[in-house]
Protein backbone atom coordinates (compact mmCIF):
# COMPACT_ATOMS: atom_id res chain seq x y z
CA UNK A 1 0.00 0.00 0.00
CA UNK A 2 1.08 3.57 -0.58
CA UNK A 3 0.44 6.85 1.17
CA UNK A 4 0.02 10.20 -0.50
CA UNK A 5 1.31 13.42 1.00
CA UNK A 6 -1.08 16.04 -0.36
CA UNK A 7 0.05 19.53 -1.35
CA UNK A 8 -1.98 22.49 -2.53
CA UNK A 9 0.12 23.04 -5.67
CA UNK A 10 2.18 21.02 -8.09
CA UNK A 11 5.32 23.04 -7.37
CA UNK A 12 5.17 22.23 -3.66
CA UNK A 13 4.63 18.55 -4.48
CA UNK A 14 7.66 18.64 -6.78
CA UNK A 15 9.74 20.27 -4.09
CA UNK A 16 8.66 17.56 -1.62
CA UNK A 17 9.49 14.81 -4.11
CA UNK A 18 13.00 16.21 -4.58
CA UNK A 19 13.51 16.36 -0.84
CA UNK A 20 12.59 12.67 -0.66
CA UNK A 21 14.86 11.86 -3.59
CA UNK A 22 17.75 13.46 -1.74
CA UNK A 23 16.89 11.21 1.21
CA UNK A 24 16.89 8.14 -1.09
CA UNK A 25 13.14 7.66 -0.59
CA UNK A 26 11.33 6.58 -3.75
CA UNK A 27 8.31 8.76 -4.47
CA UNK A 28 6.12 9.79 -7.39
CA UNK A 29 4.47 13.12 -7.99
CA UNK A 30 0.80 12.50 -8.77
CA UNK A 31 -2.40 14.39 -9.29
CA UNK A 32 -4.70 13.57 -6.41
CA UNK A 33 -8.13 12.16 -7.18
CA UNK A 34 -10.39 15.24 -7.22
CA UNK A 35 -13.10 13.46 -5.25
CA UNK A 36 -10.75 13.29 -2.29
CA UNK A 37 -9.94 17.00 -2.12
CA UNK A 38 -12.00 19.91 -0.87
CA UNK A 39 -10.65 22.70 -3.07
CA UNK A 40 -10.42 20.95 -6.41
CA UNK A 41 -7.24 19.93 -8.19
CA UNK A 42 -4.47 19.02 -5.77
CA UNK A 43 -1.14 17.34 -6.12
CA UNK A 44 0.66 14.81 -4.05
CA UNK A 45 3.67 12.65 -3.51
CA UNK A 46 3.01 8.93 -3.33
CA UNK A 47 5.36 6.66 -1.38
CA UNK A 48 5.42 3.20 0.14
CA UNK A 49 3.78 2.87 3.55
CA UNK A 50 7.01 1.53 5.01
CA UNK A 51 8.60 4.94 4.43
CA UNK A 52 6.05 6.98 6.40
CA UNK A 53 8.36 7.77 9.30
CA UNK A 54 11.25 8.67 7.00
CA UNK A 55 9.00 10.89 4.92
CA UNK A 56 7.74 12.76 7.98
CA UNK A 57 11.33 13.25 9.17
CA UNK A 58 12.50 14.43 5.77
CA UNK A 59 9.66 16.92 5.47
CA UNK A 60 10.22 18.21 8.97
CA UNK A 61 13.95 18.64 8.44
CA UNK A 62 13.43 20.51 5.18
CA UNK A 63 10.51 22.75 6.14
CA UNK A 64 8.13 20.97 3.78
CA UNK A 65 4.55 21.29 4.99
CA UNK A 66 2.11 18.80 3.50
CA UNK A 67 -1.60 19.50 3.80
CA UNK A 68 -2.35 15.96 4.90
CA UNK A 69 -1.20 12.37 4.39
CA UNK A 70 -3.84 9.98 3.07
CA UNK A 71 -3.95 6.37 1.92
CA UNK A 72 -3.76 5.96 -1.84
CA UNK B 1 27.04 39.81 -39.29
CA UNK B 2 28.47 41.36 -36.13
CA UNK B 3 25.93 41.46 -33.35
CA UNK B 4 26.49 44.08 -30.65
CA UNK B 5 22.92 44.59 -29.43
CA UNK B 6 22.97 42.07 -26.61
CA UNK B 7 21.42 44.52 -24.14
CA UNK B 8 18.26 44.36 -26.25
CA UNK B 9 18.40 40.60 -26.60
CA UNK B 10 21.35 38.25 -26.76
CA UNK B 11 22.22 36.68 -30.09
CA UNK B 12 23.13 34.12 -31.23
CA UNK B 13 21.49 31.72 -28.83
CA UNK B 14 23.62 28.77 -27.76
CA UNK B 15 22.91 25.57 -29.72
CA UNK B 16 21.92 23.92 -26.44
CA UNK B 17 19.04 26.40 -26.11
CA UNK B 18 17.78 25.76 -29.62
CA UNK B 19 18.24 22.02 -29.20
CA UNK B 20 16.32 21.78 -25.94
CA UNK B 21 13.46 23.97 -27.20
CA UNK B 22 13.19 21.82 -30.28
CA UNK B 23 13.31 18.62 -28.24
CA UNK B 24 10.58 20.00 -25.99
CA UNK B 25 8.32 20.81 -28.92
CA UNK B 26 8.90 17.39 -30.44
CA UNK B 27 8.94 15.14 -27.41
CA UNK B 28 7.42 16.45 -24.17
CA UNK B 29 5.48 19.69 -24.58
CA UNK B 30 2.45 18.81 -22.48
CA UNK B 31 0.69 21.44 -20.40
CA UNK B 32 2.63 21.63 -17.12
CA UNK B 33 0.60 21.51 -13.93
CA UNK B 34 -2.69 20.59 -15.52
CA UNK B 35 -3.08 16.96 -16.55
CA UNK B 36 -1.60 13.87 -14.96
CA UNK B 37 -0.28 12.20 -18.09
CA UNK B 38 3.37 11.61 -18.85
CA UNK B 39 3.88 14.60 -21.13
CA UNK B 40 2.32 17.01 -18.64
CA UNK B 41 4.58 15.70 -15.87
CA UNK B 42 7.65 15.72 -18.12
CA UNK B 43 7.07 19.39 -18.93
CA UNK B 44 6.42 20.19 -15.27
CA UNK B 45 9.65 18.53 -14.18
CA UNK B 46 11.66 20.57 -16.69
CA UNK B 47 10.01 23.72 -15.42
CA UNK B 48 10.88 22.84 -11.85
CA UNK B 49 14.49 22.27 -12.96
CA UNK B 50 14.58 25.85 -14.21
CA UNK B 51 13.04 27.19 -11.00
CA UNK B 52 15.74 25.37 -9.04
CA UNK B 53 18.51 26.70 -11.31
CA UNK B 54 17.32 30.29 -10.98
CA UNK B 55 17.00 29.83 -7.22
CA UNK B 56 20.61 28.65 -7.00
CA UNK B 57 22.00 31.21 -9.45
CA UNK B 58 20.53 34.17 -7.58
CA UNK B 59 20.67 32.75 -4.03
CA UNK B 60 16.90 32.88 -3.59
CA UNK B 61 15.14 31.34 -0.61
CA UNK B 62 13.35 28.51 -2.40
CA UNK B 63 12.42 27.35 -5.92
CA UNK B 64 8.76 28.20 -5.35
CA UNK B 65 9.77 31.84 -4.92
CA UNK B 66 10.69 31.87 -8.63
CA UNK B 67 7.70 33.11 -10.65
CA UNK B 68 7.91 32.75 -14.40
CA UNK B 69 6.99 35.84 -16.40
CA UNK B 70 7.06 36.96 -20.01
CA UNK B 71 10.01 39.30 -19.44
CA UNK B 72 11.57 41.65 -16.89
CA UNK B 73 8.95 44.35 -17.54
CA UNK B 74 6.19 41.92 -16.61
CA UNK B 75 8.12 40.96 -13.47
CA UNK B 76 8.70 44.59 -12.48
CA UNK B 77 5.02 45.39 -12.94
CA UNK B 78 4.02 42.56 -10.60
CA UNK B 79 6.55 43.67 -7.99
CA UNK B 80 5.76 47.39 -8.12
CA UNK B 81 1.99 47.09 -8.34
CA UNK B 82 2.00 44.61 -5.45
CA UNK B 83 3.10 47.40 -3.12
CA UNK B 84 0.73 50.07 -4.43
CA UNK B 85 -1.81 51.60 -2.09
CA UNK B 86 -3.16 55.06 -1.64
CA UNK B 87 -0.34 57.25 -0.33
CA UNK B 88 2.45 54.75 -1.00
CA UNK B 89 5.79 56.36 -1.85
CA UNK B 90 8.53 54.73 -3.92
CA UNK B 91 12.16 55.73 -4.42
CA UNK B 92 13.90 54.80 -7.67
CA UNK B 93 17.25 55.58 -9.21
CA UNK B 94 17.86 58.11 -11.96
CA UNK B 95 18.99 55.24 -14.19
CA UNK B 96 15.65 53.44 -14.33
CA UNK B 97 14.21 52.15 -17.58
CA UNK B 98 10.61 52.89 -18.56
CA UNK B 99 9.75 49.45 -17.20
CA UNK B 100 10.09 51.07 -13.77
CA UNK B 101 9.26 54.68 -14.57
CA UNK B 102 6.00 54.00 -16.39
CA UNK B 103 4.44 51.80 -13.68
CA UNK B 104 5.40 54.47 -11.15
CA UNK B 105 3.90 57.22 -13.31
CA UNK B 106 0.73 55.15 -13.68
CA UNK B 107 0.52 54.68 -9.92
CA UNK B 108 1.08 58.38 -9.36
CA UNK B 109 -1.67 59.34 -11.82
CA UNK B 110 -4.24 56.66 -11.05
CA UNK B 111 -3.63 55.15 -7.63
CA UNK B 112 -2.63 57.99 -5.29
CA UNK B 113 1.03 56.97 -5.06
CA UNK B 114 4.13 59.11 -5.46
CA UNK B 115 7.80 58.56 -6.18
CA UNK B 116 11.15 60.27 -5.83
CA UNK B 117 14.29 59.77 -7.88
CA UNK B 118 17.69 59.34 -6.24
CA UNK B 119 21.02 60.44 -7.67
CA UNK B 120 23.16 57.44 -8.54
CA UNK B 121 26.22 59.69 -9.11
CA UNK B 122 27.12 57.94 -12.35
CA UNK B 123 29.23 60.85 -13.60
CA UNK B 124 30.82 61.64 -10.25
CA UNK B 125 34.54 60.68 -10.37
CA UNK B 126 34.37 60.04 -6.62
CA UNK B 127 31.23 57.91 -6.84
CA UNK B 128 30.83 55.45 -4.01
CA UNK B 129 28.13 53.47 -2.22
CA UNK B 130 27.95 55.88 0.69
CA UNK B 131 27.12 58.82 -1.57
CA UNK B 132 24.42 56.85 -3.31
CA UNK B 133 22.94 55.64 -0.03
CA UNK B 134 22.91 59.20 1.31
CA UNK B 135 20.93 60.22 -1.78
CA UNK B 136 18.40 57.50 -1.01
CA UNK B 137 18.22 58.20 2.73
CA UNK B 138 17.44 61.85 2.12
CA UNK B 139 14.28 60.82 0.23
CA UNK B 140 12.85 58.30 2.69
CA UNK B 141 9.44 59.29 4.07
CA UNK B 142 7.12 57.56 6.54
CA UNK B 143 5.03 56.47 3.53
CA UNK B 144 7.97 54.99 1.59
CA UNK B 145 7.41 51.34 0.77
CA UNK B 146 10.32 50.43 -1.48
CA UNK B 147 13.57 51.39 -3.13
CA UNK B 148 13.80 50.35 -6.78
CA UNK B 149 17.16 50.14 -8.48
CA UNK B 150 18.57 48.64 -11.58
CA UNK B 151 21.53 46.31 -11.04
CA UNK B 152 23.20 48.03 -13.98
CA UNK B 153 21.66 50.59 -16.35
CA UNK B 154 20.93 49.80 -19.99
CA UNK B 155 22.91 52.70 -21.48
CA UNK B 156 26.12 52.57 -19.47
CA UNK B 157 27.88 50.03 -17.29
CA UNK B 158 27.72 51.76 -13.90
CA UNK B 159 26.83 48.96 -11.51
CA UNK B 160 24.74 49.89 -8.50
CA UNK B 161 25.95 49.02 -4.98
CA UNK B 162 23.26 46.46 -4.30
CA UNK B 163 24.69 45.21 -0.99
CA UNK B 164 24.77 48.68 0.52
CA UNK B 165 21.35 49.70 -0.80
CA UNK B 166 19.97 46.41 0.51
CA UNK B 167 21.45 47.12 3.93
CA UNK B 168 19.86 50.56 3.93
CA UNK B 169 16.51 49.00 3.03
CA UNK B 170 16.85 46.48 5.86
CA UNK B 171 17.55 49.33 8.30
CA UNK B 172 14.65 51.43 7.05
CA UNK B 173 12.32 48.41 6.73
CA UNK B 174 11.76 49.02 3.04
CA UNK B 175 11.33 46.51 0.27
CA UNK B 176 14.18 46.44 -2.23
CA UNK B 177 13.19 45.80 -5.83
CA UNK B 178 16.00 45.21 -8.33
CA UNK B 179 15.75 45.34 -12.10
CA UNK B 180 18.21 42.67 -13.20
CA UNK B 181 17.68 43.23 -16.93
CA UNK B 182 21.29 44.20 -17.65
CA UNK B 183 22.97 42.55 -14.67
CA UNK B 184 21.69 38.98 -14.76
CA UNK B 185 24.12 36.75 -16.58
CA UNK B 186 26.77 39.46 -16.71
CA UNK B 187 27.88 39.46 -13.07
CA UNK B 188 26.77 37.68 -9.88
CA UNK B 189 23.64 38.89 -8.09
CA UNK B 190 23.01 37.42 -4.64
CA UNK B 191 19.52 38.06 -3.28
CA UNK B 192 20.35 36.97 0.26
CA UNK B 193 23.57 38.93 0.57
CA UNK B 194 22.08 42.04 -1.00
CA UNK B 195 18.77 41.80 0.87
CA UNK B 196 16.78 41.91 -2.35
CA UNK B 197 13.01 41.54 -1.87
CA UNK B 198 12.12 41.20 -5.54
CA UNK B 199 14.42 40.57 -8.48
CA UNK B 200 13.11 41.02 -12.03
CA UNK B 201 14.84 39.03 -14.76
CA UNK B 202 14.61 38.76 -18.52
CA UNK B 203 15.43 35.29 -19.77
CA UNK B 204 16.48 36.44 -23.22
CA UNK B 205 19.38 38.76 -22.44
CA UNK B 206 22.36 37.76 -20.32
CA UNK B 207 20.77 34.47 -19.32
CA UNK B 208 20.94 33.46 -23.02
CA UNK B 209 17.41 32.06 -23.19
CA UNK B 210 14.67 32.81 -25.71
CA UNK B 211 12.40 35.84 -25.88
CA UNK B 212 9.23 35.23 -23.91
CA UNK B 213 11.10 33.89 -20.90
CA UNK B 214 11.65 35.82 -17.70
CA UNK B 215 11.15 35.59 -13.97
CA UNK B 216 10.34 37.46 -10.81
CA UNK B 217 12.10 36.06 -7.76
CA UNK B 218 10.77 37.24 -4.42
CA UNK B 219 11.75 36.87 -0.80
CA UNK B 220 9.41 35.11 1.62
CA UNK B 221 8.30 38.40 3.14
CA UNK B 222 7.48 40.17 -0.13
CA UNK B 223 3.68 40.68 -0.33
CA UNK B 224 3.28 39.84 -4.01
CA UNK B 225 -0.19 40.18 -5.49
CA UNK B 226 -1.37 38.70 -8.79
CA UNK B 227 -1.41 40.93 -11.83
CA UNK B 228 -3.35 38.37 -13.85
CA UNK B 229 -6.05 35.97 -12.73
CA UNK B 230 -7.14 32.62 -14.08
CA UNK B 231 -6.34 28.95 -14.14
CA UNK B 232 -3.50 27.72 -11.98
CA UNK B 233 -3.95 23.95 -12.06
CA UNK B 234 -4.64 23.86 -8.34
CA UNK B 235 -7.46 24.67 -5.92
CA UNK B 236 -9.74 24.82 -8.96
CA UNK B 237 -12.94 25.04 -6.93
CA UNK B 238 -11.83 28.28 -5.27
CA UNK B 239 -12.93 31.54 -6.85
CA UNK B 240 -9.64 33.17 -5.89
CA UNK B 241 -6.08 32.50 -6.94
CA UNK B 242 -4.27 30.00 -4.70
CA UNK B 243 -2.39 31.42 -1.75
CA UNK B 244 0.77 29.47 -2.49
CA UNK B 245 3.68 30.57 -4.63
CA UNK B 246 4.43 30.40 -7.47
CA UNK B 247 1.00 29.37 -8.73
CA UNK B 248 -0.55 32.41 -7.03
CA UNK B 249 1.19 34.64 -9.57
CA UNK B 250 1.24 32.35 -12.60
CA UNK B 251 -2.26 32.39 -14.10
CA UNK B 252 -2.57 30.56 -17.39
CA UNK B 253 -0.34 28.11 -19.20
CA UNK B 254 3.38 28.68 -18.86
CA UNK B 255 5.58 28.72 -21.95
CA UNK B 256 7.35 25.40 -21.52
CA UNK B 257 9.56 25.78 -24.66
CA UNK B 258 10.73 29.21 -23.50
CA UNK B 259 11.43 28.01 -19.96
CA UNK B 260 13.38 24.92 -21.01
CA UNK B 261 15.34 27.17 -23.37
CA UNK B 262 16.08 29.47 -20.47
CA UNK B 263 17.27 26.51 -18.40
CA UNK B 264 19.65 25.52 -21.22
CA UNK B 265 20.88 29.12 -21.42
CA UNK B 266 21.61 29.18 -17.69
CA UNK B 267 23.52 25.92 -17.93
CA UNK B 268 25.57 27.37 -20.81
CA UNK B 269 26.51 30.51 -18.93
CA UNK B 270 27.32 28.48 -15.82
CA UNK B 271 29.67 26.36 -17.92
CA UNK B 272 31.43 29.51 -19.11
CA UNK B 273 31.39 31.04 -15.62
CA UNK B 274 29.97 34.41 -14.56
CA UNK B 275 33.35 35.80 -13.57
CA UNK B 276 34.80 34.83 -16.95
CA UNK B 277 31.90 36.52 -18.70
CA UNK B 278 32.32 39.70 -16.65
CA UNK B 279 36.07 39.80 -17.38
CA UNK B 280 35.56 39.14 -21.09
CA UNK B 281 32.94 41.88 -21.42
CA UNK B 282 35.10 44.36 -19.52
CA UNK B 283 37.97 43.57 -21.88
CA UNK B 284 35.72 44.24 -24.88
CA UNK B 285 34.46 47.46 -23.29
CA UNK B 286 37.97 48.76 -22.63
CA UNK B 287 39.13 47.87 -26.11
CA UNK B 288 36.11 49.57 -27.67
CA UNK B 289 36.60 52.61 -25.45
CA UNK B 290 40.26 52.91 -26.43
CA UNK B 291 39.51 52.58 -30.13
CA UNK B 292 36.56 54.99 -30.13
CA UNK B 293 38.46 57.53 -28.01
CA UNK B 294 41.02 57.79 -30.80
CA UNK B 295 38.35 58.91 -33.28
CA UNK B 296 37.78 62.62 -33.54
CA UNK B 297 34.23 63.71 -32.81
CA UNK B 298 33.25 60.60 -30.86
CA UNK B 299 31.94 60.97 -27.31
CA UNK B 300 31.69 57.91 -25.05
CA UNK B 301 29.31 58.30 -22.10
CA UNK B 302 30.26 57.30 -18.54
CA UNK B 303 33.52 55.78 -19.80
CA UNK B 304 34.88 55.04 -16.32
CA UNK B 305 32.39 52.22 -15.83
CA UNK B 306 33.55 49.15 -17.78
CA UNK B 307 31.03 46.40 -18.45
CA UNK B 308 28.71 44.95 -21.04
CA UNK B 309 27.22 48.25 -22.31
CA UNK B 310 28.95 51.19 -24.01
CA UNK B 311 27.12 54.24 -25.36
CA UNK B 312 28.55 56.85 -27.67
CA UNK B 313 27.70 59.52 -30.22
CA UNK B 314 29.40 60.96 -33.28
CA UNK B 315 29.25 64.75 -33.41
CA UNK B 316 26.65 66.02 -35.83
CA UNK B 317 25.13 62.65 -36.75
CA UNK B 318 21.92 61.45 -35.03
CA UNK B 319 22.34 58.21 -33.14
CA UNK B 320 19.66 56.40 -35.12
CA UNK B 321 21.39 57.45 -38.35
CA UNK B 322 24.67 56.03 -37.06
CA UNK B 323 22.93 52.79 -36.10
CA UNK B 324 21.39 52.56 -39.58
CA UNK B 325 24.76 53.20 -41.23
CA UNK B 326 26.37 50.52 -39.09
CA UNK B 327 23.57 48.13 -40.03
CA UNK B 328 24.45 48.68 -43.68
CA UNK B 329 27.88 47.34 -42.73
CA UNK B 330 26.24 44.34 -41.04
CA UNK B 331 26.97 45.65 -37.56
CA UNK B 332 23.98 45.50 -35.21
CA UNK B 333 23.82 48.18 -32.52
CA UNK B 334 20.94 50.26 -31.22
CA UNK B 335 20.41 54.01 -31.54
CA UNK B 336 17.89 56.29 -29.86
CA UNK B 337 16.73 56.53 -26.27
CA UNK B 338 16.69 52.85 -25.30
CA UNK B 339 13.44 53.39 -23.35
CA UNK B 340 15.43 55.28 -20.73
CA UNK B 341 14.98 59.07 -20.92
CA UNK B 342 15.92 59.57 -17.26
CA UNK B 343 19.36 58.03 -17.73
CA UNK B 344 19.99 59.95 -20.95
CA UNK B 345 19.20 63.18 -19.11
CA UNK B 346 21.85 62.29 -16.54
CA UNK B 347 24.47 61.35 -19.12
CA UNK B 348 23.79 64.45 -21.22
CA UNK B 349 22.59 62.49 -24.24
CA UNK B 350 18.94 63.50 -23.94
CA UNK B 351 18.71 65.44 -27.19
CA UNK B 352 18.94 62.45 -29.50
CA UNK B 353 19.88 59.50 -27.37
CA UNK B 354 23.02 57.53 -28.13
CA UNK B 355 24.44 54.64 -30.06
CA UNK B 356 24.71 51.60 -27.82
CA UNK B 357 27.09 48.71 -28.32
CA UNK B 358 26.46 45.84 -25.93
CA UNK B 359 28.49 42.69 -25.55
CA UNK B 360 27.95 39.00 -24.87
CA UNK B 361 30.31 36.13 -24.06
CA UNK B 362 30.30 35.29 -27.78
CA UNK B 363 31.68 38.61 -29.03
CA UNK B 364 35.35 38.87 -29.94
CA UNK B 365 38.01 41.54 -30.13
CA UNK B 366 37.61 41.42 -33.93
CA UNK B 367 33.97 42.46 -33.53
CA UNK B 368 34.88 45.66 -31.72
CA UNK B 369 37.71 46.36 -34.17
CA UNK B 370 35.16 46.20 -37.00
CA UNK B 371 32.85 48.51 -35.05
CA UNK B 372 35.62 51.04 -34.51
CA UNK B 373 36.65 50.93 -38.18
CA UNK B 374 33.07 51.57 -39.25
CA UNK B 375 32.59 54.39 -36.75
CA UNK B 376 35.81 56.00 -38.00
CA UNK B 377 34.51 55.87 -41.57
CA UNK B 378 31.15 57.34 -40.59
CA UNK B 379 32.80 60.11 -38.59
CA UNK B 380 34.80 61.02 -41.73
CA UNK B 381 31.64 61.28 -43.76
CA UNK B 382 32.19 58.18 -45.82
CA UNK B 383 28.60 57.10 -45.39
CA UNK B 384 26.85 60.40 -45.67
How is this structure best described in words?
- The complex is a heterodimer of chains A (72) and B (384).
- Chain A is an alpha+beta fold and 72 residues long.
- Chain A has one domain (2-71): ACT domain (Alpha-Beta Plaits, 2-Layer Sandwich).
- In chain A, 32% of the residues lie in helices and 31% in strands.
- Chain A has two helices and four strands, in the order E-H-E-E-H-E.
- Chain A has helices at residues 10-22, 52-61; strands at 2-7, 28-32, 42-48, 68-71.
- Chain A has a four-stranded antiparallel beta sheet with strand order 2-3-1-4, with helices on one face.
- The radius of gyration of chain A is 11 Å and the shape is globular.
- With 384 residues, chain B is α/β, with parallel strands linked by helices.
- Chain B folds into two domains: 15-271, Aspartate Aminotransferase, domain 2 (3-Layer(aba) Sandwich), CATH 3.40.640.10; 273-379, Aspartate Aminotransferase, domain 1 (Alpha-Beta Complex).
- Chain B contains twelve helices and twelve strands.
- Chain B has helices spanning 15-28, 38-57, 72-82, 98-110, 129-137, 162-172, 191-194, 256-272, 274-293, 319-328, 341-347, 365-379; strands at 2-3, 66-69, 89-93, 114-118, 144-150, 175-179, 198-202, 214-218, 298-300, 309-314, 331-332, 355-358.
- In chain B, the strands form three sheets. Chain B has a seven-stranded mixed beta sheet with strand order 2-8-7-6-5-3-4, sandwiched between helices.
- Chain B is globular.
- Classes of the chains: A alpha+beta (72), B alpha/beta (384).
- Chain A binds chain B through residues 8-12, 14-15, 18, 29-31, 38-43, and chain B through 32-33, 35-36, 41, 44-45, 48, 51-52, 62-64, 232-238, 242-247.
Amino acid sequence: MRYIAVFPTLTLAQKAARVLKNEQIAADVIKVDSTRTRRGCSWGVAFDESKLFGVRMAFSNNSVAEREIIKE
Amino acid sequence: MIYLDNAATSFPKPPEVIGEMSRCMKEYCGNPGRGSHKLAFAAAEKIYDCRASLCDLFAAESPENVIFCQNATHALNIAILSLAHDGAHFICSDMEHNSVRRPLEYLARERGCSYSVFDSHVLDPNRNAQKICRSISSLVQPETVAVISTACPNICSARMPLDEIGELCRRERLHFIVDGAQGAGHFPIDMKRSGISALALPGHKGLLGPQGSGALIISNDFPARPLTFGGSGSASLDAEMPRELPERLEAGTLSTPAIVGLEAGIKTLQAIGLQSIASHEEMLFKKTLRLLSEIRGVTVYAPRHAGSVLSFNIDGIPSDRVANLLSERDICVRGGFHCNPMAHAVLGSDRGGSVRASFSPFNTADDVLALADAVRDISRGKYR
